[in-house]
Amino acid sequence: MAEIILNRDAGRRDGCLVDIEGIVKDFGITPQLRRGFRKCVNGRWPIDPRFIFIEESHAKHPALYRSHLAGDFCHILLGYDLLASGETPEKLQQQTLATNEYLKINKDAQYLAGAILFPKDIFLQKWKECLEGAPEKSNREELLYYCEEKLETMFCSTRNRILERAIDLNLMTTEELREFFT
């Protein structure tokens, strides 16, 4: 699904950086910065699929803003099945989800957000370049920290999103995450 979105919006990438805000707007969804945004969402589930509400303070931190925007976009994309239905957000009705439905969509949305923000081929290439450029005699922990810090800057994203994608692509393990990053 991430490939479909990235191919559909092929001009929305500049090197490592995916223009997630442009992709969101191409789908007819408007990001809105708001103080106290929780009034507009139920947990992370949007009341109105035409808008993504993000806490205003997150705009000061582009990596955090991009992470939340991608996650919330994927919630709408999957929850309202935008690709399959072909509907535009203005034609959609509010949905109420059971907890188990929400949890499944949340897990899938977080995975999809990582796949969109970090296209597999580019992420693997940059990870390899980081490993090759790491200081000599680095142990596994030092290598992981080095790569995470470099990719965080390259992709303008959060540590958590970088580490989640590295685990998804089998570049590190959840055990390493717990041992080195907690």
Structural commentary:
With 182 residues, this protein is mostly helical. It folds into two domains: 2-117, Arc Repressor Mutant, subunit A (Orthogonal Bundle), CATH 1.10.10; 120-181. The protein contains nine helices and six strands; from the N terminus they run H-E-E-H-E-E-E-E-H-H-H-H-H-H-H. The chain has helices at residues 2-8, 20-26, 62-79, 82-85, 99-117, 120-133, 140-154, 159-168, 174-181, and strands spanning 13-14, 17-18, 30-34, 41-42, 45-46, 51-55. Helix 1 (2-8) crosses helix 5, helix 3 packs across helix 5 and helix 6 crosses helix 7. It is elongated and about 55 Å long. The two termini are 31 Å apart.
CATH class of the largest domain: Mainly Alpha
Q: Return the structural class.
A: mainly alpha
Biggest sheet details = 2 strands, antiparallel
Q: What is the N-to-C succession of helices and strands?
A: HEEHEEEEHHHHHHH
CATH structural architecture of the largest domain: Orthogonal Bundle
Report mean pLDDT, rounded to a whole number: 86
Please indicate the percent range of residues in DSSP E strands (runs of 2 or more).
Answer: 5-15%
Oligomerization category of the chains in this entry: single chain
> Uncertain spans, ≥5 residues at pLDDT below 50?
none
- First and last CA, distance: 31 Å
* Rg, nearest Å: 17 Å
Number of strands: 6
Total separate domains: 2
Helix content: 55-70%
Which topology of the largest domain does CATH recognise? Arc Repressor Mutant, subunit A
Global geometry: elongated
